[in-house]
Design a protein that fits this description.
The structure holds 3 protein chains of 3 kinds. By secondary structure, chain B is an all-alpha fold. Helix content of chain B is 75%, strand content 1%. The chains are: A mainly alpha, B mainly alpha, C alpha+beta.
């Protein structure tokens, strides 16, 4: 029955680790309290706040499904997210390849610029693009939001794929060239399959980040709202219980994505890599 | 091994994109900050230092900037205080449940920023969960009004949002510490507490610096939480920028402030990079 | 082990024996990485069907040379020719050269069969031909049973075979092998040495085999090219490189040797109190004397009948090391010289011994270049 005794919990540091356990439990409660409140009150008949919750109801969900504006903005967000994902991958993967294997003057600056939006507050990315579109006379629309998200999220694709490339055995690609495949064939037959997890991971992450993005979109919005901006508009007007419902749905979808990712086992590494990458700027310079 | 054409093909497209949508816009921001706006709300492309003069002279901007930095500093400290023990526990004590607990840290990151900020509003409002709970159990008779629309609410919400961001790099740094160093320390007679302060903590500093930079920079530039939960006393520097680009219609002044923020952020990144290098020994 | 009279400097067989046509010519190839010379003007020819081993320690440039032939590195100067084709100007995928990588570099997402078929697929060969050639290649390395397995599911030795099949199925004119046996344990390694050699005879194409293991090189090669700090020290058959090392480094790297530092004057070499006739030119000189050419005379009576033929000295045994069939005896001579002698195992060696060697076995060698 030895497997019942976890080796790490019996390593002689029990007194301090018990306090640590309480503390960690408290931190987790803090992290999950708002989410729990959200879910509970999405079923609360009284709507806003108010303790204890009473009158279990599905009214808010019913209201939600007949709400045209929410649906429209949701569809807009979907379009934006797919387009942003495509742009980020199309430009982010080559950027990772360039950082990994090309040498050119200004590479260090290029690297910092690509990664900057990862840590830059969205307001700066949003405003600088707003000025660009204003100067060049581009009308604000979902398209400008796509460009904004693409610009901000290329960094995500680049960090994820770059981390994957660092782990990729260079001999794999050499073997392919050696066996007569040219660079293009090698890229599709060897590089991409080897980077499958980072690429899928990046795609999922970009998709969810784009679905949720508000700081950049805030400045680039045209006539059509994205879902977060639609929600934002309603929040500004006051607390509306159907937001609880829509938030719960988003949460469930996010959770499903996490489970998907967890299955792929890339998510955990991905975030840690992004975090490590943020600061560890000079690995390849 | 890679031909010149290959390198050109992978370098050129992202380089063009980055130039067009990052470099040029930052440059435009720089230009705007030296222009001015007429009373009839057209932007004059005449170069002057008026915006910067105004920033130096008017104390509102300075006070708001300082308040923003103070809020960001508190968010950073609280995120580290919550995040470090969590990361430490995950790395050293979680045992077989490590992966699961790690996922539990990640999950809140997937929940929309907006939704989380809004959830705090539901909790902290005068008709909110916390106040009605306190009255329900007869701890208070009237709603506590300092909870919402205050810097407190902003700090609390931002701490909630950025704690997972602090946990991740700290956890990564802790995971990189070879376990035989801890064993060596015990072997040489150090107690667990001594081992923590003399071995584990110093080696985790790069992660702490990264986590702190994350929390500080992102909360410094936040404008949504203050708008939603901050009230008049919780206004941050980005809110001023937002209004300058909106109702107040003074893009040049807004650009000058944004540029200042950009410079602050980039210098912070520079400093934290230095710090991390200094503290990483591998 | 009687050697013929030694010329002043052992010949270096840069070109293979005349009988076989030359397949590949490496001409003055040099490579620098950021100011560090990894290869310095290396020239050598590889014959059709030859088994050439590039031997050297880590940092000798042996892998770089291989990668230049394969096309993964570009030489800083020099040329590589295959017949009338300037090979070094071709991208790796247009060279009729294939490589067996050090860690095999099998594609983890493809099955054994798909790995072997890879080269034919990208060359867009007809499906029927691919199927047939892949089956043949797998059969040749006895891996048919594992055709559908992923590389991670088979052992190191099996991966090795698949890597071989994957390279050979493309019918290259030259096969490059980058320390392919280094990951295997000693037994499997010896077995693979034999298999590789017989496979090479069977397919009849030239192999360039990179290794740091001198024993492996001796066992397998037609010729050995010994590199050191980017210099080609010597290229010769295993026998020649052993019996007539060109430099002090070669003599020490391959087997054991006694390096004698002395002076030649008027056809007589002197080292400590010893002297012997030599054809080496006058001036300071360096000689290599293999331990097996040093006879322990101490066990025999003082007045040996061969006394007049050899060079003799006396000394005290300081160390004796068992090497299986033989033993190495370290003797400190009266004049301060320390000599190694090889004797049959089990011989009872006295404390005080007399040593003897023939001047014919003393090979003059060049001083090796110091590392900068």
């Amino acid at each position: 029955m030895e497997f019942l005794v976890s080796p790490s919990s019996s390593s002689g540091i029990v007194p301090s680790s018990r306090w640590l356990l309480f503390y960690v439990a408290a931190v987790f409660s803090f992290l999950y309290l708002p989410i729990a409140v959200l879910i509970v009150y999405s079923f609360n008949g009284e709507g806003v706040g108010g303790f204890p919750p009473r009158h279990l109801t599905l009214d808010w969900y019913r209201l939600l499904f007949t709400d045209g504006a929410i649906w429209d903005s949701f569809l807009n967000s979907l379009q934006v997210a797919f387009a942003a994902m495509a742009i980020s991958l199309i430009f982010g993967i080559p950027a990772a390849l360039a950082l990994d294997r090309a040498k050119f003057p200004g590479k260090a600056l290029f690297r910092r610029l690509v990664l900057l939006p990862l840590i830059l507050p969205g307001i700066i990315t949003g405003l600088s693009l707003l000025m660009l579109f204003n100067m060049t006379g581009v009308r604000l629309s979902l398209m400008t939001i796509v460009l904004g998200h693409g610009t901000a999220l290329i960094s995500v694709a680049t960090t994820e794929v770059f981390a994957g490339l660092q782990k990729l055995d260079r001999a794999q690609e050499e073997a392919s060239l050696d066996l007569g495949a040219n660079y293009w064939q090698t890229f599709w037959r060897i590089t991409v399959p080897n980077l499958k997890l980072p690429i899928i991971g990046a795609a999922l992450l970009i998709f969810t980040l784009s679905m949720d993005e508000i700081a950049v979109s805030f400045f680039l919005i045209g006539r059509d709202n994205t879902l977060p901006l639609e929600i934002w508009g309603r929040l500004r007007r006051g607390i509306t219980p159907e937001i609880n419902a829509v938030s719960t749905i988003i949460f469930v979808f996010s959770l499903a994505t996490i489970v998907l990712w967890y299955r792929l086992n890339a998510r955990a590494e991905g975030m840690a890599e992004i975090a490590a990458e943020m600061m560890n700027d000079d690995k390849s310079v | 091994m890679f031909s010149r054409t290959y390198k050109l093909i992978v370098t050129l497209p992202p380089l063009v994109w980055v130039t067009a949508f990052l470099l040029v816009p930052y440059f435009l921001m720089f230009c705007y900050s030296f222009w001015s706006v007429t009373p009839s709300q057209t932007i004059l492309h005449s170069w002057n230092l008026d915006n910067y003069k105004e920033l130096v002279v008017k104390t509102t901007y300075w006070q708001t900037l300082l308040r923003s930095m103070w809020i960001a500093a508190r968010v950073t400290i609280f995120s580290l205080m919550l995040g470090y023990p969590l990361a430490y526990f995950l790395s050293f004590y979680a045992g077989p449940r490590k992966d699961l607990l790690y996922q539990l840290v990640i999950i809140p990151l997937w929940v929309s920023y907006l939704v989380r900020a809004y959830a705090w509003k539901t909790i902290l409002g005068s008709e909110g969960v916390l106040n009605t709970l306190l009255q329900y159990v007869h701890l208070t008779r009237h709603p506590l009004d300092f909870l919402l629309y205050s810097p407190f609410a902003v700090v609390l919400t931002l701490t909630h949002i950025y704690t997972p961001f602090a946990v991740l790099p700290i956890y990564a740094a802790l995971e990189h510490i070879p376990r035989n160093l801890v064993e060596a320390s015990h072997d040489l007679g150090a107690t667990p507490t001594q081992t923590f302060w003399k071995v584990i903590f110093p080696l985790s500093i790069p992660g702490v610096v990264a986590g702190a930079t994350f929390a500080f920079v992102l909360s410094l530039g936040d404008f949504l939480a203050p708008l939603l939960l901050g009230g008049p006393s919780g206004i941050m520097i980005s809110n001023i920028v937002v209004s300058l680009f909106g109702a107040a219609y003074n893009w040049p002044l807004g650009a000058a402030i944004s540029l200042g923020m950009l410079i602050i952020v980039v210098s912070l990144l520079f400093v934290s990079e230095r710090l991390e290098k200094k503290w990483s020994f591998s | 082990m009687a050697s013929p009279p030694t010329p002043a400097v052992a010949p270096t067989a840069r070109t293979p024996p005349d009988t076989k046509p030359i397949l590949l010519s490496i001409k003055n190839v040099a490579k620098t990485f950021g100011g560090n010379a990894v290869l310095r003007n290396v020239s050598l020819d590889i014959a059709e069907g030859e088994f050439l081993t590039v031997l050297g320690e880590s940092g000798s440039g042996k892998t770089t040379l291989l990668r230049i032939i394969a096309g993964f590195e570009t030489a800083s100067s020099g040329e590589v020719w295959m017949g009338t084709l300037r090979l070094d100007l071709q991208p790796p995928y247009r060279r009729r050269v294939n490589t067996v990588f050090q860690s095999y570099a099998l594609f983890p997402h493809l099955t054994v069969e798909q790995n072997v078929a890879y080269g034919l697929r990208v060359a867009k060969r007809p499906a029927a031909e691919i199927a047939q050639r892949v089956a043949e290649a797998l059969d040749k390395v006895k891996m048919t049973a594992y055709a559908k397995a992923k590389p991670s599911k088979i052992s190191g030795g099996q991966q090795q075979r698949v890597a071989l099949a994957r390279a050979l199925v493309n019918r290259p004119r030259l096969l490059l092998l980058d320390e392919p046996l280094s990951a295997l344990d000693a037994n499997l390694r010896r077995q693979m040495q034999v298999e590789l050699k017989s496979l090479q005879r069977e397919v009849g194409i030239a192999f360039v085999f990179v290794t740091h293991d001198q024993e492996e090189a001796m066992v397998m090669s037609d010729r050995i090219a010994l590199l050191r700090f980017g210099d080609l020290e010597q290229i010769a058959t295993p026998r020649e490189i052993y019996s007539r090392p060109a430099t002090a480094y070669v003599a020490q790297f391959i087997g054991h040797t006694n390096l004698l530092k002395g002076e030649v004057r008027g056809g007589i070499a002197r080292c400590a109190s010893l002297s012997w006739p030599t054809q080496a030119p006058g001036g300071p000189a360096l000689f290599s004397l293999r331990p097996e050419h040093v006879r322990l005379a101490g066990n025999a009576p003082e007045k040996s009948p061969e006394k007049n033929q050899g060079v003799r000295t006396r000394g005290r045994v300081v160390h004796q090391a068992f090497h299986g069939a033989t033993e190495l005896v370290r003797v400190a001579c009266v004049d301060g010289l320390v000599l190694l002698a090889r004797t049959a195992a089990g011989l009872v060696v006295k404390n005080e011994v007399e040593l003897e060697f023939s001047p014919l076995d003393v090979v003059p060698v060049r001083e090796s270049r110091e590392r900068k």
